[in-house]
Amino acid sequence: MAIRIRNHVYFTPLFYYLLGALVFFLALGQFGEFIFLLSLMALGLFAVLLVTECLLLFARPKHLFTAHRFLDERFSNGHDNNIKLIFTNDFPFRVHIKAIDELPVQFQKRDFSIKRSLRRGETARVSYTVRPRERGGYWFGHLNVFIKSPLQLLERRLRYGRNTMVKVYPAFQEMRQFEMMAISNRLTEMGIKKVRRLGHQMEFDQIREYTKGDDYRTINWKATARKSHLMVNQYQDEKSQQVISLINMGRTMQMPFEGMTLLDYAINASLVLSKIAMLKHDKAGLITFNNKVRSIINPQRNSKQLQLIMEALYKQRTQFEEQSMDALYSAVRRQLHQRSLLVLFSNYESLSAARRQLPTLKKMARDHLLVVVFFENTELTKLTNERAMDIEGIYIKTIAEKVAYDKKRIILEFERYGIHAVLTPPKDLTVETLNKYLALKARGYI
Q1: pTM
Q2: Is 108 left (phi over 0), alpha (psi -120 to 50) or beta?
Q3: Among 238, 264, 336, 345, which one has the highest count of C-beta atoms within 10 angstroms of its own C-beta?
Q4: pLDDT tens by residue, 235-253
Q5: Which contiguous run of DSSP H or E holds residue 297?
Q6: Residues 369-385, buried b or exposed e (16+ Cβ, 10 A)?
Q7: What is the C-alpha end-to-end distance of the chain, expressed in Å?
Q8: Beta bridge partners of 392
Q9: Alpha-carbon distance 388 to 277, whole Å?
Q10: In whole angstroms, how far apart are CA 110 and each of 10, 120, 132, 138, 354?
């Protein structure tokens, strides 16, 4: 590790190795004049090399070497975000560099460095990725570049850039992927299932010519008689339905999976759901709550709605207090005056916990179509699949199987009262939520 002498000058390990060897041979020179003279000559050569490297590195202006860091204005939470570094060497010789980017404290990376060797006039482009695990502001510090000449005895430190804050928003990268797939009708590539439509609980769109494969039941006989060839009615999904994401920010959503809390998984999924709902010509809204209602965005479909939802989700902060379902029910009664699809993102680890909230959920389900999305405990699922090797293992596996069974009983308990339920691993939350929304829409429930 190099040791600093001044703010921008460092000795390299090679300097200390050579200096140590010289001291050793000077000590041996006490036993022979010839060895002592050779040591003095080597010491003189070492001093000349040191002065030469000082001139090479420090007698030239700083702008002969440049470095730039390119950051996006915002990062997507839970996804890989790209950072680009560009280095240009205008020194008249090859340089060896070590770049240390001062990453935000949230990443907890203290050994990050990039090493390159650049010829005269060469430009190097380096990219690396970071994956944030929580929303908020991330501060990047300076880009430090340590430059060595071919002699590699000294290093010159150059600092570039300035402290820059990047906002980490909910997963807008994932939202864009689903948006592109939805526009090109390729959602199946993202894991979205095709749903068979039942009947014609859809709005009439237009009359068009019959093509092979059309449903015979859609033939419009009056239009056929006028045109003298088969004409069919074309239908489209009903529009302007209200889709509201209800996000529980209470204690049960604090549990982490793969570095992210359940709350952040729910926030990411609700953003994608809002975007797809608006692409389907529905109105998207949002309510977040814990011990009281924290934010409300009334359902709309306009150019600014998605940005409002994204900003609201970005700003959500919670101490994970106990959630108040009564406060949520009051907000729903007060804000929503027509039948809507309510997607409640919450979590239940036991059947008794679900039954405590059931009276409030039943009241919401009387006026709206309610879908409760909660999480499978993937760590317990792994335990149920492992083989028990002793009494303790049998006990742990039995408890894990009971918890997993209770999760399935929760689904049955909800369905008894007309409440739709989705049990999903955290990583599949977005896909499973969209599957449920599209299935309900295709079958005319909303």
Answers
A1: 0.78
A2: left
A3: 345
A4: 655 567 899 999 999 999 9
A5: strand 293-300
A6: bbbbbbbbbeebeebbe
A7: 65
A8: none
A9: 46
A10: 19, 31, 16, 16, 43
